[in-house]
Amino acid sequence: MKTAPHALVAVMAGCLLLTACAQSGANGESAPGADATGAITFVSTGGKFQEAQTQAWQVPFTEKTGIGFVNDGPVDESKMKAMVDGGKVTWDVLDTSAGAAGQYCGEYLEPLDFTVVDRSKFDPKTVGDCGVPAYFYSTLLMYDTSKFADNPPTSVADFFDLDKYPGKRIVPPELSVGLLEFALLGDGVAPDQLYPLDVDRALRKLDSIKAKTTFSTTYGQIQQAMVDQQVTMALTSTARAEAVLRAGAPFTAVWDKTVVNWDDLVIPKGSPNKDAAMQFIALATDDGPSSDFSRLSSTLPVNKDIATQFDDVQEAINPFAPGREDGIVYGDALWWSENLDAVTDKFTNWLVG
Could you give the angle at the alpha carbon of 201 between the alpha carbons of 195 and 203, nearest 5°? Predict the structure, then answer.
């Protein structure tokens, strides 16, 4: 999730721990005591989500290797491409969508060294030549319980029923995290028949709620709209959902269908610290760091055999909790890597049309 999937947030305060602050500059500065020329530049979504990555991944890596970090962000694939094209790459590791990892593999991203990164720990369907999963995240359908207390929505189709469930909607800023999938599911398409996505059919379904829907530009916008109860229903990430619930907003999830995707860790082609970056990816996806990040960010670990350590709020939005797994719909990263640009162009024209 950057964001774009990748713009998820964990509910944490401050800089988590002083050790985390000491290892990573918040404004692109080298960690104290680290050699700026040897420090890994890590790029993610910023905010408390990236602080969680600092705590769970960077601190143990620095303790093990002595290599420090520079934190940068947010992730911007166009900026990465410009760096590579110009031969002036300053980024080493990116947290980006699985679709982008596949789309830019080889030309803009380094192939991973699988003698360093253990690909056997991942589901084979989630591993590409240039990226491995950093975490799983989901897009949830949620509703305001104070608005629909007597007759709550129970299905994805209800999100598109303005007569039965009136009020404003809000949806994510990224296409590849489930918006079109939800539209097709709401229009009666079976989960195993989603791909290749019928984009025109999805847009026709979205037409039915377009006038009442905010197409957000950031995940923070979704969170604020839910906390302020400006919308009655929302499609949002698990981490933003957690923040909403901890703020006391009266929302709950509809456990009909949940779209699950994952973000990859990747290395830009020409990374000045490629070898260290490869070692960092190997450590970040180990069971311990993966479990720690899951707990801090409310995402799901890359190895589903790892027991999550969620509290009651996190369990309330956990799609892998007992009784909910049948509703999980996995995104198709390969399809999105091959179609993202064309679908984005079509969606943009539809949105402004």
Answer: 110
Q: Which of 140, 141, 116, 109 is nearest to 264 (CA)?
A: 109
Q: Which of helix, strand or coil describes residue 69?
A: strand
Note the pLDDT of residue 23: 38
Query: Residues 204-240: pLDDT tens digits?
Result: 999 999 999 999 988 889 999 999 999 999 999 988 8
Q: Which CATH code for domain 138-260+328-352? A: 3.40.190.10
Q: 157 in the Ramachandran plot: left (φ > 0), alpha (ψ -120 to 50) or beta? A: alpha
Number of helices (H), then strands (E), in the chain: 14, 11
Q: List Cβ neighbours of 86 (8 Å cut-off, separation of 6 or more).
A: none
Rounded distance between C-alpha atoms, residue 204 and residue 197, angstroms: 13
15 pLDDT above the threshold of 50:
no
pLDDT band at 123 (very low <50, low <70, confident <90, very high): confident
Confidence (pLDDT) at 236: 96
Left (φ > 0), alpha (ψ -120 to 50) or beta: where does 158 sit?
Answer: alpha
CA distances from 217 to 11, 236, 329, 343, 350 (A): 21, 12, 24, 17, 16
One fold for both 18-135+261-315 and 138-260+328-352? yes
* 178: region left, alpha or beta (phi > 0 left; psi from -120 to 50 alpha): left
In CATH, what is the architecture of 18-135+261-315?
3-Layer(aba) Sandwich (3.40)
Distance between CA 48 and CA 339 in Å, rounded? 31
pLDDT in tens, 158-193: 999 999 999 999 999 988 899 999 999 999 999 999
In this predicted structure, what is the pLDDT of residue 25? 40
Domain ranges of the chain: 18-135+261-315, 138-260+328-352
Contacts of 142 (CB under 8 A, 6+ apart): 226, 233, 234, 235, 236, 241, 244, 251, 252, 253, 254
Q: Quick one: which H or E segment has residue 97?
A: strand 93-97
Q: Quick one: CA torsion of 95, 98, 293, 65, rounded to 10 degrees?
A: -50
